[in-house]
Amino acid sequence: MSSYPTFSFHTTADEVATAFSEIIAGKNVLVTGTSLNGIGFDTARVIAKYANLVVITGYNEDRLKLTEEAIKKEIPSANIRRLILDLSSLAAVRSAAAEVNSWPEPLHVLINNAAAIIAPFKLTVDNLENQIATGHIGPFLLTKLLTPKLLAAHSATYTPRVVFLSSVGHALSPGINFATLGHPDEKQFQSMAAYYDTKAANVLTAVELSRRAKGRVLAYSLHPGAIFTKIMQKEEAPAGLQAIGVLDEKGQPKDESIFKSIPQGAATTVVAAFDPRIEGAAGAYLNDCVLANELVSAFCSDPANADKLWEVTEEIIGEKFEFSS
């Protein structure tokens, strides 16, 4: 393992994928949220160079086709499969998961990349707050339903992985209000707070998934870095990011040196998905392509909070997420 390179803030997803090309070879990977010019797209693109199968997802068929076309234009040999997935709808998640479970292939890596735009209060079809539904509850259900596919990939020499894209913003959450998670209260809602809570939920879910899986599945959460993607430029995101000093009064990056390119932003995801050096750190949080548990907030470092979130989310989806002994 000492032959693998050292990664950093500046490392690109292409560099990580090249380093782990032999590990990626033969793997089947599902990436949520793969629209063009996003982190998920670049993640899928670099993995598709070496993987057996890359499943790309989105709720818009036309945009999903554009993603597939862009990847195949660069990598004609890429094996891409499109999956319509609306994470804001529990019924839609169940439908998409049923389709995946009908396929013959096992699933080696599930990358929960998708997130909702930071926006005003909005209820989903299930009467859940849209950000937490799309960024946590939907991915939780998807992961639960695809776990048999992941376990089918387990062998004496390989352990499947689940990756959750979080953010350093998780540390700005004072603590998830478990009482309103399934019963949102518009009067208590703040768009940036909902974003922070969602990212905190991602960290907690990775911790608890790894604990409950007992080595059969490895889960990780990560901060991809500050990347000036479309999600930073829509709805209420600019005002919220201005308030914490990330964007200037014109909605542009205040300090270019802290921002990453999209290829740099996708790099930590690929590390979490394939780096063999982190196998012994299940549930860990990564930043700049390396383990960074010291950056995890006190709330997200408390195992009791991880257990509580798991149980509350099970109640919301109406299903137990358990690993048979």
Automatic annotation (TrEMBL):
InterPro entries: NAD(P)-bd_dom_sf, SDR_fam. Gene3D superfamilies: NAD(P)-binding Rossmann-like Domain. One of its GO terms (molecular function) is oxidoreductase activity. It holds the Pfam family adh_short. The keyword Oxidoreductase applies. Keywords: Oxidoreductase. This is Short-chain dehydrogenase/reductase family protein. It comes from Favolaschia claudopus.
